[in-house]
Structure formats: C-alpha cells, structure tokens
C-alpha cells in the first residue's frame, strides 16, 4: 500500500515538473523573435505543437493552462510583456484569441496519433494549429470590428512562418513520438 502511495506521489511530482518545464519553454519561445517575411516570428506556436505531440493532450493542456495562468497573474511570460503590459490587461488585449487557441491546438496535436502518410500528418498539424488563428481572428473581430480585413491583419502575415514551423514538427515526428513514450 505504501509503495502505491509513493508511486502516485512520484507520478504527480513528475507531472508538475514536466508542466512547469513546458510552461518555461513556452515563455522563452514567446521572447524569441526571428526575422521572417513579412513579419518577425516567435516560436510559441512551434512549442505549442511540440508540447501536444510530446506530452499528449492531457499533460499538454495542463502545461498550456499553467502558462496562461502564469501570464494572467502577471508573470512576464507572454510575447510583448512586460513592454506592452502584463497580467489580465495584457491577456484580454488583441492576442487573447490566439492565446485561447493554444489550448485547442495543444489538445488536437496531443490527440492525433500521427500515423499514416506524410500528407495526412501534415493536415493533422495544419488542423491543430488552425485553432490559434480561428480564435485569434474571432477575438480581433470582437475587439476591433468585423468590417476590418481580419484575415489580412490576423492570419496572412503569419502563414509562411507557420508553414515553416509545421514542417519542423512534421520532420521531427518520429523523434517526438519516442519522447512521448519516454515521458509517459
């Protein structure tokens, strides 16, 4: 009985540790700005996909939720913080929809098995990441108005960068799946 209790506590410690490390990686990725056309890119969406694929949907969701909680309570984990604000005020700004989309992206990236051919895997990654832009544009429409060219403002500038990041994950899937088995 004592051994079972120790194993459960050990597993909880492992889960908390992995979620904390994942949220730190997500925070670091939000601060990395790489020159890219037409706008500089951060590596957040890449890390969100990686978290889903490597941690699975449950731990991936817990990790992204922890990251969002850290930002909402005022830790400078979001891209543009502390320069552009912090906490709940920053969270409810123009990027809130994208941040909410992280939850859906990590969920789907964690749910897919990524078996089958390369094209199927590519579409699964595109589907997963599309939620970031769906909720991003939805929130922008609410915030700045539906008469604005929302696709041109909130999606189009990021398409090439997202394709680049998706290809990185796609080419790394076999290694990531091995890491997933190790972390479980």
Please characterize this protein's 3D structure.
This protein is an all-alpha fold. It has one domain: Arp2/3 complex 21 kDa subunit ARPC3 (Orthogonal Bundle). Helix content is 74%, strand content 0%. The chain contains 7 helices and no strands. Helix 2 (44-72) crosses helix 4 and helix 2 (44-72) packs across helix 7. The protein starts with a helix and ends with a helix.
Give short descriptive properties of this protein.
Arp2/3 complex 21 kDa subunit ARPC3, 0% strand
Runs in which pLDDT lies below 50 for 5 or more consecutive residues are none
Coarse morphology: globular
> H/E series, N to C?
HHHHHHH
- Average pLDDT, all residues: 93
What is the helical fraction, as a range of percent? Answer: over 70%
Specify the CATH architecture. Answer: Orthogonal Bundle
Strand content: under 5%
Topology summary:
Blueprint: H1 2-31, H2 44-72, H3 87-91, H4 96-111, H5 118-144, H6 150-154, H7 159-183
Helix pairs in contact: 1-2, 2-4, 2-7, 4-5, 5-7
Describe the structure in brief.
The chain has a single domain (2-183), classed as Orthogonal Bundle (Arp2/3 complex 21 kDa subunit ARPC3).
